[in-house]
């Protein structure tokens, strides 16, 4: 029913819903009035049928939703979190503001115990956890890893790994899916949060691009502040990845601004050391080397391997260079598999 409502641009609030996951009906925020039903029903787990009469925002339903949100907000250490925590980290904040909740009418103890982990990527701040289980479900349903699960019941419910150990010792592949689906920031991007103090309350700029690490072509949104990359969000509407990324696509972006990254071509001089030069001189030197090898050892002594991190146009030119320039098919690409 939630899908039908979205199709008709009728927004129904939710915290446990992710369109990539199977309906769960855990948060109960998406309850609606169904004509003929004794009690409100969860729209995400109720299938739409012909002739069904549904009321999505009556005074009674909105009062239920506000009370549920007050209970959730009252158990969380904080609701205002940095957008650098993750793609969906502001969902609870947005709903709190939408319903005008100040968090004082219903209060309780924080709902989880945060984990001090040695891994460099994922912050597990479970005092912000609302037990929506989106992280557990995305790990199982989308990644097939089952690296995290649920421990205990009731108020003592906790998201955990097998034997309650460290995340780096579990089956986790650090794809970051759990981070990006979390609606409260309980799971957060540690690397991105390094820039949280720099951007303060500002919202980082987003630029849509393609991940350069392999030939799949995953769409990503690069988060920047003052032209500096501070994080990566997977594109949920990316045709190749639909919100998924591997550990490299999610976290390995430091090379872009690394101090060791080459900015000018280098040529090794007679002294055996590398020296900065112009592109013209560097290309002439490379061409001279190719001609020398071909003259001494023949055309089959030259083999080309294109990089999966290069764009398709570069791969095309690489194979053209080998096939036309040397008349062989000695060309491969690291992303062909």
UniProtKB/TrEMBL annotation:
GO terms for molecular function: 4 iron, 4 sulfur cluster binding; metal ion binding; NADH dehydrogenase (ubiquinone) activity; NADH dehydrogenase activity. It comes from the Eukaryota. SMART domains: Molybdop_Fe4S4. PROSITE patterns: 4FE4S_FER_1, 4FE4S_FER_2, 4FE4S_MOW_BIS_MGD, COMPLEX1_75K_1, MOLYBDOPTERIN_PROK_1. Keywords: 4Fe-4S, Iron, Iron-sulfur, Metal-binding, Oxidoreductase, Repeat. The keyword Iron applies. One of its GO terms (biological process) is ATP synthesis coupled electron transport. GO terms for cellular component: membrane. Coiled coil: none annotated. Residues 204-260 form the 4Fe-4S Mo/W bis-MGD-type domain. It holds the Pfam family Fer4_Nqo3. Transmembrane segments: none annotated. Its cofactor is [2Fe-2S] cluster. Residues 120-153, 163-192 form the 4Fe-4S ferredoxin-type domain. PANTHER family: FORMATE DEHYDROGENASE H, RESPIRATORY NITRATE REDUCTASE. This is NADH-ubiquinone oxidoreductase 75 kDa subunit, mitochondrial. It comes from Geodia barretti (Barrett's horny sponge). The lineage of its organism: Eukaryota, Metazoa, Porifera, Demospongiae, Heteroscleromorpha.
